[in-house]
Amino acid sequence: MPELPEVETVMRGLTPVLVGRTLTSLTARRADLRWPLPKNMEKQLVGQPITALERRAKYILIHFQHGLSLLVHLGMSGRMVIDDGKTALEKHDHVILKTDAGMRVRFNDARRFGMMDIMETETARQHKLLVHLGHEPLSRSFTAKSLLAAIQTRKTAIKTAIMDQEVVVGVGNIYASEALFMAGIHPKRSASTVKQAEAEKLVEAIKKVLKRAIEKGGSTLRDYVQADGELGYFQHEFAVYGRKGEPCKNCKKPLEHMTIGARSTFFCVNCQK
DNA sequence: CTTTCGTCCTGACTGC
DNA sequence: TGCAGTCAGGACGAAA
User: Fold this and answer.
1) Angstrom distance, A111 CA to C3 C1'
2) Stated in angstroms, how far is A39 CA from B14 C1'?
3) What are the strands of the beta sheet with A68-73, ordered from one edge?
């Protein structure tokens, strides 16, 4: 389940394989993922040098020299598998990229919640999927002040609010539970009731939780092509997520579970108010 | 405008 | 062991 740290890790792993290389082939093995794949992907991108990779929210942008960019979202089950192009393709390998260095990148996505699109690099920020995105959580612009401004009129649960990409991007279901636990805020609290001091703690917690996860991903990136060629899916140590009934690491009281906005939520009723 | 809910998809897991 | 049913989840888009 790729959240921001996973996407960041995948992007960092792809960078040395792709940047500075020329795309020698691109094969779309089906016409759609979540939505139809762009028309003539191959014609638009093959033969072009890749100049840079970038992450925005949970999207990866692959920039090409001729001014087009490939936008990729991993969805729920999307993976980027790097290999030398000599092994057999696997089930759910939907899009295959090859470079002039002989490396192959396979976009494998069992559930097909992922997506790809091609856009002009210059106007990428105006793309309908990117234009409404809120602050990057690890940027300086994401502060208690900016968070409060975004949520002070919102009556929805604070957990739902921080998962809203217009408020702050990249906080998915898992890290939302983790960050709220770290900040001592009950996930069901109305967002509008969050006070300045709590917002400060929450912003701090979101940054810390995400940074820690990226560092863990980073540690597995030393040899970015792992034995199985898979990038960036590392073991997490969660404080609350998936730990219903287990003792709170803080107070030992059994952790609780509830559904908020149709999403599984874990918290400590004693430590989070 | 805000908020909720349905939807897409398939593998993993549960219960009988 | 097999099968049916349930759950998981990002984010759009429709509905309330």
Assistant:
1) 22
2) 42
3) A50-56, A59-64, A68-73, A115-120
For residue A66, is pLDDT > 70?
A: yes
Is strand B within 7 Å of residue A89 (CB)? Answer: no
pLDDT for A116-142, tens place per residue?
999 999 999 889 899 989 999 999 999
Q: Catalytic residue at A5?
A: no
pLDDT at residue A236 greater than cutoff 70: no
Distance A244 CA to C10 C1' (A): 23
Question: Would you say A4 and A211 are in contact if contact means Cβ atoms under 8 Å apart?
Answer: no
Tell me the CA–C1' distance in angstroms for A109 and B6: 22
Q: How far is CA A173 from CA A1, A44, A95, A209, A271, in A?
A: 10, 35, 27, 13, 19
* Chain A 8-67 residues whose Cβ is under 7 Å from strand B: 34
> Does any strand C atom come closer than 7 Å to the Cβ of A78?
no
Q: Which nucleotide is nearest to A262 (CA to C1')?
A: B5
